[in-house]
Amino acid sequence: MARFDQLCLCYKHPMSLYTDPNTSELVIPLVHMNYTHPPVLIVGAGPAGLVAALTLLQNGIPVRIIDKDPNPRIGQRGSGIWPRSLELFNFLNVPEVNNLGKPIPLIRSYKPGTLEVLKDFAIVLEVEPTPTVPFHIPKLIGQQLLDVVLRRHLEKFSCSVEMGTELRSFKQEEEGVTAVLAKNGVLETFDTKWMIGADGAKGVVRKELGLTFLGETRDDFCIITGDICLKGVGLDRVHWHQFGTWQERALSLRPTDEVGEDGWQFFITDREVEMTKIVQSEELIFETIASFVPTEITFNKLAWVSEFRANIRMVNKFSEGRVFVVGDAAHVHSPTGGQGLNSSVQDAFNLGWKLALVEKGLADKSLLETYSSERLPVISEMLEITTSILNQAITTGGIAARLNPKLFMLGINCRFSNIVLDEFATPVEGKPINAYGVLDEGHLEAGDRAPDAPNVLQVGRRESDVKTLFSLYRPWYHTVLVFAPSLVDATPILGMLEACDHSVVCKAVVLPSSAPVTPIASSCADAVLVDREGYAYSAYLVEANQTKVFVIRPDGVIGAIVHGAEGVKKYFSKIFLDV
């Protein structure tokens, strides 16, 4: 893999070196840029900061990432990873998230004061797998383990988090940002070109930028959450155990081997006691848990604990000048629905590819304005959804998350963005923005998530190779999918794309199942694919005799759906300079 000191060597074609034949590992393109020090400073090394760093590094942009805590954070914290985020980690070539993550267990509730089962139920909607959605099962992976996984991927670029390094202040000018950092009592002045604040709701970056953080703090909802090691007679490690009701007082225990062979993540709420007092005492936490569970319990260790009150707030914009905010630095909300971590890493992924293109000099700085304009409506709707689930939990004692398919995040879109182009959609003046939609496999517009398709056969090489469309999509280039009856029909479009920078544009032709499977060479296409089973044509709603072009952005979003070469050129004029 590319090391930091190799980043200034050369460009490499993204498709010609797609995987290392010896390790099957993704080969990262190197960028011909001369850096004396990293042009991006990332403040905060939680999942959002780490994803921002990895996205930029895979784009060939060196980063410096710091965190004020002296040691990596511990705790499960927000552990739910929804399907859209699993796709994001797939694009980043971080398969460990899906592989190490566990399916969400059934909730087992009990009759009051007993271990007699009241009912078992799923907390999320059961979704049948389809060819377009390869990751249809939400997974649970604690943030402590997720951070370790992401840090290891940063290390492939000789990038490591500088712990115990705090941002004290910064000022920005037309050409860059000057940050004042502190470590072990020693101040350092660091000049950089861009800064990303991933330093949480109480962080320095948003406050120094002067962004508003309007919303509310809910006094009617407080929980204590943490990780604990205990053994309870009659408590299996298959179910997520729930005692009481969330209207009054409740305890949930979710088994997780990440904490230990007797490890659990717990949630406690009790309206009749002072929660702040309980969270400060290990003994009171043990006593509270024991009061819920009518069985013999052996407590071994309290690994981590925190008190949480529902803050529901968001910024008025996600950037100012050369400084950006992502994740909790930009929005906080109820944990109901489990959208927080997912929204945070999706912020970072949206920003990363755009910032990389601007830093490389391939896109105008105005492209960065679309980070804020695309994420604001999404986060606003997310706050409404999670707050609605919270209100229902408080009033009825039940969690309605399992009834809401929006939480899978597969319908999140930016159809309203001024940089997407759809020549097939009928413009509707005053059409309301529905940024947090529900996945509809029978409808597809520019700005939607690009669907997957399995079993497409790559031809034109010595040996044919079976691929998925998702295997083509990566964070450092746009993928142009030309659906055409034959290579001849695709040639004019491919010819126009020859002028594009091959390091940031990949060209693939998708032929219908009726096309010959014999090797078909094309000097203009990076990949020629035969849709043997029709999954790609079905997913992208293309007829076998039709020519239709899709441009997939580096974040896996459909940037354009157009008729041909002129449409592609028009879309790229919104993204790149000198098109």
- Give the rounded overall mean pLDDT: 91
Count of DSSP H/I helices: 12
Radius of gyration: 25 Å
Would you report the number of β strands? 30
- Outline, from the CA principal axes? globular
Question: What are its keywords?
Answer:
579 residues; alpha/beta; 8-stranded mixed sheet; 30 strands; 28% strand
Overview of the molecule:
The protein contains twelve helices and 30 strands. With 579 residues, it is an alpha/beta fold. The strands form six sheets. It has an eight-stranded mixed sheet with strand order 6-5-14-15-16-13-17-20, sandwiched between helices. An eight-stranded mixed sheet has the order 22-30-29-26-27-28-24-25. α10 packs parallel to α12.
